[in-house]
């Protein structure tokens, strides 16, 4: 289980270190938005009608949009005063040049955004961004498509947003993945296109850490984007990435002109500073020792904790239990299945089997640090007695003490045997 995934020491800086004085921050953000609006819209009518028109096509009212801006502002851990500025930034985002590269992947992120029956404002915004190059939806093909990518890089040098989906195969000098009429490798294209981007976002687990293409034995030597470029890469892992986290990261870039604060795995702290377990609505059952032990059992009907069915929520950092998926109404545990840990590096190797607790994973809670085995044995006693974390702690401690005692007895008896032999 990843030892490095410890965001407990995270210090939140909602004003992103852009100035010490809050008034100065707002002034600088407003100036930046004014200048971007001037650059990207032809006039006031164009600017005011842009998102309004887009949303009205999807039945999203102005009121819904205001509510959504407030939701995104709080998800991004920004003060409420930023809410109208977040709305302005979302509007500008739809006019910012984009290049979206697809590498080795299932295109699950693209599918999740473009095929939603009732898209959320975040998904609508992603559908309407000014994508200058995206193989799956663009009209040009072959040489024309390649020319468009090269032209966008040249024309919008330092300004375009680069989104990469999928892992980069590096084996055989990248030849496991060739793209386009000239047969350039994904590795070459990813490197070239990263060089002059304004900001680079790796979307999904494959682009962030290699994901499933990089799972053992990783025959194509696939890696995440950050391993092939020396530019800063913002990772938005998950399978698929949550549109709220993608749009929030890009909106922040429009607001302040730089990447959000990132953790040691390159993830924006506002989205990935907590574990799913910290905010899960089943957490009370975890503490009370009430677990689903078989699919469809009484515990499942009562929505008990899914830890014993393999839930990886205690080891996974993401905001799924807060912002949720599918029109912000659900996430795996609400649907009755545990988290599979898809936001963590190497989750396919480290989090499997998905429906069993990981034997060597450390559960770290106040007073408790135990592997699933120690935890499970302690739990049987604790659940039987109907008591919670401190009982589990006592159980774990007792189990460790009894293990130490038996090890000591064994070593004493070995010493006696040695003495007898002498
Ligand atoms: S183990 Fe999973 S289901 Fe149980 S409380 Fe934690 S996140 Fe929720
Ligand atoms: S709940 Fe777990 S498996 Fe599902 S998207 Fe979130 S991190 Fe991935």
From TrEMBL:
[4Fe-4S] cluster 2 binds at residues 277, 280, 305, 311. Residues 396-422 are annotated as: Disordered. The chain crosses the membrane at residues 375-396. One of its GO terms (biological process) is anaerobic respiration. Residues 272-354 form the Cytochrome-c3 hydrogenase C-terminal domain. It is found in: Cell envelope. It comes from the Bacteria. One of its GO terms (cellular component) is [Ni-Fe] hydrogenase complex. Residues 403-422 have a biased composition (Basic and acidic residues). Keywords: 3Fe-4S, 4Fe-4S, Iron, Iron-sulfur, Membrane, Metal-binding, Oxidoreductase, Signal, Transmembrane, Transmembrane helix. [3Fe-4S] cluster binds at residues 320, 339, 342. Residues 106-252 form the NADH:ubiquinone oxidoreductase-like 20kDa subunit domain. Its cofactor is [4Fe-4S] cluster; [3Fe-4S] cluster. One of its GO terms (molecular function) is ferredoxin hydrogenase activity. Pfam families: NiFe_hyd_SSU_C, Oxidored_q6. Belongs to the [NiFe]/[NiFeSe] hydrogenase small subunit family. Heterodimer of a large and a small subunit. PANTHER family: HYDROGENASE-2 SMALL CHAIN, NIFE / NIFESE HYDROGENASE SMALL SUBUNIT FAMILY MEMBER. This is Hydrogenase. It comes from Candidatus Acidulodesulfobacterium ferriphilum.
């Amino acid at each position: 289980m990843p030892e490095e995934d410890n965001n407990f020491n995270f210090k939140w800086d909602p004003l992103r270190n852009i100035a010490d004085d809050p008034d100065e921050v707002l002034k600088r953000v407003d100036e930046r938005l004014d200048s971007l609006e001037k650059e990207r819209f032809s006039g006031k009518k164009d600017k005011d009608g842009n998102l309004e028109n887009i949303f009205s096509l999807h039945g999203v009212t102005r009121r819904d949009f205001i509510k959504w801006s407030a939701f995104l502002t709080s998800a991004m851990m920004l003060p409420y005063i930023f809410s109208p500025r977040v709305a302005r930034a979302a509007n500008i985002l739809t006019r910012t040049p984009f290049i979206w590269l697809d590498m080795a992947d299932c295109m699950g992120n693209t599918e999740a955004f473009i095929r939603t029956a009732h898209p959320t404002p975040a998904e609508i915004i992603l559908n309407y961004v000014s994508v200058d190059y995206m193989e799956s939806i663009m009209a040009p093909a072959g040489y024309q498509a390649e020319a468009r990518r090269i032209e966008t890089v040249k024309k919008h040098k330092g300004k375009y947003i680069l989104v990469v989906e999928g892992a980069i195969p590096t084996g055989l000098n990248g030849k496991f993945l060739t793209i386009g009429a000239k047969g350039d490798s994904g590795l070459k294209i990813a490197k070239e296109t990263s060089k002059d981007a304004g900001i680079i976002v790796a979307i999904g687990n494959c682009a962030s850490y290699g994901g499933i293409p990089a799972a053992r034995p990783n025959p194509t030597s696939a890696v995440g984007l950050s391993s092939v470029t020396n530019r800063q890469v913002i990772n938005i892992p998950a399978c698929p990435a949550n549109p709220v986290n993608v749009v929030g990261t890009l909106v922040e870039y429009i607001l302040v002109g730089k990447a959000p604060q990132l953790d040691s795995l390159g993830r924006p702290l506002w989205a990935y500073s907590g574990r799913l377990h910290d905010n899960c609505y089943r957490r009370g059952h975890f503490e009370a020792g009430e677990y689903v032990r078989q699919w469809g059992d009484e515990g499942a009907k009562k929505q008990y904790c899914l830890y014993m069915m393999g839930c990886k929520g205690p080891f996974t950092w993401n905001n799924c239990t807060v912002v949720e998926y599918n029109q912000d109404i659900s996430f795996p545990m609400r649907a009755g299945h545990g988290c599979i840990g898809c936001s963590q590096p190497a989750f396919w190797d480290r989090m499997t089997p998905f429906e069993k607790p990981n034997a060597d994973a450390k559960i770290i809670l106040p007073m408790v640090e135990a592997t699933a085995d120690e935890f499970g044995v302690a739990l049987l006693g604790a659940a039987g007695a109907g008591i919670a974390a401190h009982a589990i702690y006592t159980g774990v401690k007792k189990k460790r003490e009894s293990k130490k005692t038996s090890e000591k007895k064994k070593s004493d008896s070995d010493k006696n045997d040695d003495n007898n032999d002498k």
